[in-house]
Amino acid sequence: MTKINYLLAICALIWSFSSCSKVEYTKVDKPAYLRVFNDFNTKIGVENKDEQKPFMCMLIDPQFDKDGVPVDAAIKGDYLDQRASYAPPYPSHIGSSTSKRNPEYPGKENVPAGPVLNGFDLSSWAQIPSGKHRIVFYYRPMNDIPFFSLEPAIRKNVVVDTTIELGVEEVYTMHVLQTDFKTKSRGLILRKENFHLLPLSDSMVYVNFYNYSAEGFWSADKSEKFDNFEDGLLRFGIRDDINIWMSLCKPGGWTTIPGYKFAYLGQMKRSIGNGVAPYYSFPLFADTASNRITTDIWQRFSLLVPGLDPEKIPYGDRDVNADGQYGLLALYGNGTRQSFERGGLFLPSMIVNIHSGTYNPRSFATVNTIEVINGTAYLTTIQRRYPKPIY
Amino acid sequence: MLKYIKSGMLIALLPAFFTGCKHNELVVPDARESYRPAGDFVKNNYDLQLFNAALEYTGLATELNGEGPFTLFAPNNNAFNELGITRISDFQRLNKDSLKLAMQYHILNRRLPLTDMPTNGVDVRYMNLAGREVYLTLASMDPKSPGFALNNLFVNGSFAVKKNVVLSNGILNVMDKVIKYIPGSVQQFLAAKPEYSVYVAALKQSGLWEQLSGAGPFTIFAPDNAALERQGITMETLSTYNAEKYVTARLFGMYILPGKNLFLTDFIALNTIYGTPQLQAKIANDNFIYRLTATKNLSQVTPSEFSLAYQDPENPALGSQGTVYGNTSRKNDNLTDNGIVHYLPDLVIKPKVALKK
After folding, report:
1. Which of A72, A203, B135, B183 would bridge with B123, disulfide CB 3.0–4.6 Å?
2. Are residues B94 and B79 in the same domain?
3. What SUPFAM superfamilies would the database entry show (chain B) (predicted)?
4. Lateral strand order in the sheet of A186-192
5. What is the pLDDT of residues B115-139, one digit of tens each?
6. pTM
7. Using CA atoms, how far apart are residues A189 and A259, in angstroms rounded to an integer?
8. First to last CA, chain B
9. pLDDT band at residue A226, thresholds of 50, 70 and 90?
10. Number of structural domains in chain B
11. Do residues B170 and B293 share a domain?
12. What is the DSSP letter of A191?
């Protein structure tokens, strides 16, 4: 019996040595948090077929060979495609996608993600060492070849080349976009977010608005723009100064919640700048008939030039071309188009409904950003942590 | 007892030593052995008979059996027939050097399988053996339904009827048209063709000629002498042409599209990629609008057919007027150093429409 004990002891000893391996966790010292979007969405057609397609590779602190061709970089965000209309609160692209195309950075990239900062889930942000960085965006062909394996000749096509400075534990959203529709000039926006520093309540839904359209887009001839019915009234662009009116409606139609019919929120000015827009809010349970666990209201934003009264709009909601004076956003359910709102651009609702605790679903308030860019609008949702579901 | 059984088992094992010793020569088939080099592959395909004859006549066939790598855009027999070449002996009548250059134009000095071509790339340039660039367009899929691959490949206005054939030293694609590259400018191209002599004279007379030697690119739909004669424009009537009476930029200038290099197949590819099958723009130095589009039946491999029309800005309700269709494949998609020339069988804007008001 003692022999067996000895044998077991030796086995245990060997096992304890052999199974030891040191895991090197990737750690970023003094990180900044960065999320990058490719906002190019203008039309390419027969007229401008030779124009570069907005499919990019982002390099942070690139290294070059003697010919000026990038050969390596500290951080690489490859296959950066045009952004999707909805930027979800966590990188849900990873689970369901088989394509290499990345609708945002980090998106599908396997990088250290941001933590929960002041209650906000930053898992859609990448950790980047803070400090000064050179950042270069390159055009790349639409294939599956990694950027540094491409031929040197096609690795030189720069979109934007600039230097940025990132602060420690600051949250940044970066946009690479067209700044002028006529000259086709390109630029970069680095927005230092402040939602995690504001005293935002978790029973209110917050939203702010930006208009990052290229200069001269709305006034350009409509033959130069995409005629996409899914963008509704907004498809040919919106003017530079716009009033925002919000309505909260019951699902399936325009029955508004009392007190929330064309509520005036504020102004949106077209500006390609790094400033942060103010947040507007409404209560999560604005619908007093709800059970205060879940609510199914949808949000309707009328974007109108100053002087137009939302009650007396000269354009119909099914109009195709409102001369840039009227745009309509419908944030409904999961963003599926509804037939009753033809002129609306559909995006997912800002209220997150999900199984949490014993409730399925339970509604949660979020912090949102709506960016109007040329003929379309994009929604970014940031959520807090919520209790795990109990089955 | 155990002893007997043991020895019995050993004896039973004995034959195994002898039978297991047979040694067959086993040869694993080499997957690459069945692939032939480009020259041999072309030679052994009936549909590439004329292309092979051209390669042998110009001495390129041996080069194509070499190391490579090559990517071939091989025109099939139909493509040569279109140009009036139906027999192998027909090549003897051609200039060997210019034929060699033309054939080298169909061959890239690299291995370019379909998977390496940029998805939905339009007129992506690749260097060929002639030291020039081919314009490769791959309409991979409709971006709205990326799961449904089309992979229609076009090179300089020709369509790949067979793609991505693996060779031991490269890749072969079979094209439905011979790529026509003519060194020189569009001006030189038009001047060298007697069938366009009246149009050339008209351009010279109206001051539109000089620009055609410039950088370009230009896309030109050139009406031939017969087309102009049908509208009463000949060398004789041109001498009495009154520039005060007509809007020249409209009558003769509308067929010059400055800043555009358009193969007819670009429209087919762009329709898939961006859903924009039509080009609509103002005629240079005029207020009239031209509309241009092209189609091609890719399953029956018919020639590309374009339609060119105009729109009167004062009467937009009338829509496209004076539409002219053209599908004379052998005369279209002529690439020069500063543009592309297509053949227009009739005038879009008749002289009476171009009258000054």
Report:
1. B135
2. yes
3. FAS1 domain
4. A126-129, A31-38, A171-178, A186-192
5. 888 888 888 899 999 999 999 999 9
6. 0.83
7. 36
8. 127
9. confident
10. 2
11. no
12. E
Is the backbone peptide bond immediately before B29 cis, with ω within 30 degrees of 0? Answer: no
Question: Token digits for B274?
Answer: 């961006």
For strands A31-38 and A171-178, give the pairing: parallel
Considering only CB atoms, B118 lies closest to which of A44, A143, A223, namely A143
Amino acid making up residue B216: G
Closest B-chain CA to A143: B118
| B→A interface, C-beta within 8 Å | 115-124, 146, 261-262, 266-267, 270, 274, 276-281, 292
- Across the interface, which of A46, A50, A143 has its CB nearest the CB of B279? A46
What residues contact residue A209 under an 8 Å CB cut-off, 6+ apart? Answer: A244, A265, A266, A268, A277, A369, A370, A371, A372
| pLDDT value of residue A284 | 94
**Smallest Cβ distance to B122: which of A47, A49, A223?**
A49
The CATH number of the domain holding residue B312 is 2.30.180.10
The DSSP output letter for B128 is B
Chain A partners of B274 at a C-beta cutoff of 8 Å? Answer: 43-45
CB-based contact B276 A45, cutoff 8 Å: yes
* Amino acid identity at A17: F
The verdict on ipTM greater than 0.85 is no
Pick from A224, A83, A139, A159: which is nearest to B124 by CA?
Answer: A139
Chain B residues lying within 8 Å of A45, measured CB to CB: 270, 274, 276, 279
Evaluate if residue B16 carries a pLDDT over 70: no
Both B50 and B146 in a single domain?
A: yes
Q: Tell me the two tokens of residue A133.
A: 């960085």
